[in-house]
């Protein structure tokens, strides 16, 4: 009898173990099935979330003056690419408003902004309609005052805002302020070059050029010979440019030939002595003005911000009531060396915005 009971007990125990094993096995199968379903559902969602961006658009933010063809060349270049071109937007406010107003279910992919920027004076683009030209300071001021419209959710993290503006990538403060105006719940890529953008060239519609600078007080040029010696001393490692020839050359006559652009950089310093115990200084010559600026830390810093020596300005001064106004004007000679391929046939390097040697991506 005891043997029978023992046998029955062992059988029951075995049956329980089999049941537990089967239950665990079924649970594991159910768990795997659930994971498989979740993975399938995730893949479906990912496929559904695949974003289709709009075709590239281009803002031509200025117009040509006199014999210049920068904007005309840019218009032709992007028209040949079949990019959508937007004209008559001459401020950041108008650009953002256009992006908001013309939004579709597809977010913007590439937004090109063409602007002929002066590296010393900032962008030739207004902050708001009829507002100040964009510099890092004027844009920050407009942002603080809430004058720049907010961009709607019309972009993704893959959207590229590409600025075709001279040496903009070197102005980190301005790049950061521009980026802040385009951020939504997504953060687009801001792309700009440390080089000059040339549109409408004789041999290529769009290429980049490396700049070299020399300055003199406006209307007081020491002559091209002395200037060529000065710029050679300033850039001793640049052996490929014949400086005198470049300074006397106004355009690229063959592919890669250096040439010179000329423009003026003004500065204005105002001091009010109405509530001051100091007397208004009296000057008889420019040298006295330059010495006085050099000995005033605030004024010296303002001049230094332009990265142009104080002696490279032609200074004038005026006193009206209790206000002293100093005005300086410097002429910039910018030698441009087109960026060409270092091997093979002589031709310009293609301005590829994905090339980190040519463009900075912020």
Mind explaining what this structure looks like?
The chain has 362 residues and is an alpha/beta fold. It folds into two domains: 154 residues, no CATH class; 129 residues, no CATH class. 34% of the residues lie in helices and 21% in strands. The chain has nine helices and eleven strands. The strands form two sheets. It has a six-stranded mixed sheet, with helices on both faces. Strands 6, 7, 8, 9 and 10 form a five-stranded antiparallel sheet that branches. The longest helix has 48 residues. It is globular. The protein starts with a helix and ends with a strand.
Core attributes:
single chain; 362 residues; alpha/beta; six-stranded mixed sheet; 11 strands; disordered N terminus
Task: Put the structure in a nutshell.
This protein has helices at 2-49, 70-80, 92-101, 136-144, 172-182, 224-234, 243-247, 286-294, 297-304; strands spanning 57-60, 84-86, 110-114, 160-164, 189-192, 196-199, 206-217, 259-272, 314-320, 323-338, 360-361. It has 362 residues and is an alpha/beta fold.
**Class from helix and strand fractions:** alpha/beta
Helix content: 25-40%
State the total count of DSSP E strands: 11
Q: What best-fitting shape do the alpha-carbon axes yield?
A: globular
* Straight-line distance between termini: 88 Å
Total helices: the number is 9
